Amino acid sequence: MDDLLAELDRRLAAADAALAADYRGDRGVRQPIHTVYVPADRYDVRTVGDWGAQARAALDEYGGSAADLAKVLDLPAEFADDVYDRVRAKLEREPIEDLRIDFEDGYGNRPDDEEDAAAIAAAQANPGTPFYGLRIKSLEAPTRRRAVRTLDLFLKEATITDGFVITLPKVTSVEQVEAMVLVLETLEQQYGVPRLKFEIQVETPQAILGADGTALIARMVKAGGDRVTGLHYGTYDYSASLGVAAAYQSMEHPVADHAKDVMQLAAAGTGVFVSDGSTNVLPVGDAVHDAWRLHFRLVRRSLARGIYQGWDMHPAQLPTRFAATYLFYREGFDQAARRLRAYLGHGESGYLDEPATAVALAGFVLRGIECGAIDETEFDTTGLAKLARRAVPES
Q1: What is the pLDDT of residue 380?
Q2: Residue pLDDT, tens place only, 94-110
Q3: pTM of the predicted model, to two decimals?
Q4: Secondary structure of the chain as H, E, C letters
Q5: What are phi and psi of 42, to 5 degrees?
Q6: Model confidence over 187-211: pLDDT tens digits?
Q7: How many CB atoms are closer than 10 A to CB 341?
Q8: Alpha-carbon span 339 to 345, nearest angstrom
Q9: Long-range own/partner contacts, residues 176-184 (CB < 8 A, 24 or more apart)
Q10: What is the pLDDT of residue 381?
Q11: What is the pLDDT, as a whole number, of residue 197?
């Protein structure tokens, strides 16, 4: 038997090593619940405060009390007050979790001197959010030089802190990911900045299905190694590229669901976060409540699908982002807590949960605590990260 086991170890050594290298598991870091994109020419040190103020003003005007917001969003009565209070506190304390200074579609093509100046100005104005970064233009031939130039100017002037990430849009090939790694390695050496990370924006059909019939997004994740931190779905570029008419382009269109299914499969076990896209139906004018109900429902839908992050494009979307997220965790917390305690041998829950489900339950509670939906005093977090199979947090 010993000889057989030794032979198995020998035969499977390469497969064991590949599994450990390609599927590193949870990175042990908090995932933001949203990313806010702000065009570079509209960004300065006041942006986060301004968004918070506008979000609170929208909440006051269109959802002035817990009862008012509950009526608009059909919040269950038992959670309405708690959710409203947490949303209000979040908009005061941390209205934006992840801010992306946009030099791509939201900014457009400008004269070089104008974009140069915007890149330098952005570098000198750290937003103070837990997570931040910039979206450069793509590495396709027409915008490649401009993308690298903007990133170079930014890194030359910026003080890079924890939570910084670069978004690479419109990725169409594994080679572009490999090129991005080369760019980051070169700029790190040039400016002595900490190790740089980036997100792959999935908004082209080539990222989902390559010409050879393979799911290139999985190969992209592998090519980027531990520099790749996220896969972000681009609702409108992706839908349009598949010929979906503008009126039907949505986060819940079947083509969107298929793309995100592939993204989730490619990211599973790798430590790479998956983010949903945005809705372009904005809560403005006479349609605020309708837009709020749509956004609220879409955020809840993403959470139920296991996608815990999305994009927000307008300050008045923040109240519904947080309301939907907080309700998701508040509704599920009591049951999750009972099942976790029962799994750990402290009581009964009516469920016979296996280890994999216990991992999911622990991850649910941790996510709820990190975003402010659950208070740390509500659950003994001792050993919770280990149960969730979270790695030691990245430095």
Answers
A1: 85
A2: 999 999 999 999 999 99
A3: 0.94
A4: CHHHHHHHHHHHHHHHHHHHHHCCCECCCCCCCEEEEEEHHHCCCCHHHHHHHHHHHHHHHHCCCHHHHHHHHCCCHHHHHHHHHHHHHHHHHCCCCEEEEECCCCCCCCCHHHHHHHHHHHHCCCCCCCEEEEECCCCCCCCHHHHHHHHHHHHHHCCCCCCEEEEECCCCCHHHHHHHHHHHHHHHHHHCCCCCCEEEEECCHHHHCCCCCCCHHHHHHHHHHHHEEEEEECHHHHHHHCCCCHHHCCCCCHHHHHHHHHHHHHHCCCCCEEECCCCCCCCCHHHHHHHHHHHHHHHHHHHHCCCCCEEECCHHHHHHHHHHHHHHHHHHHHHHHHHHHHHCCCCCCCCCCCHHHHHHHHHHHHHHHHHCCCCHHHCCCCCHHHHCCECCCCC
A5: -110, 10
A6: 999 999 999 999 999 999 999 999 9
A7: 16
A8: 10
A9: 176/138, 176/139, 176/140, 177/220, 177/223, 177/224, 177/228, 178/223, 179/139, 180/139, 180/224, 180/227, 181/223, 181/224, 181/225, 181/227, 183/148, 183/151, 184/227
A10: 84
A11: 98
Token code pair at residue 99: 């801010």
Lookup result for tokens 């955020």: 299
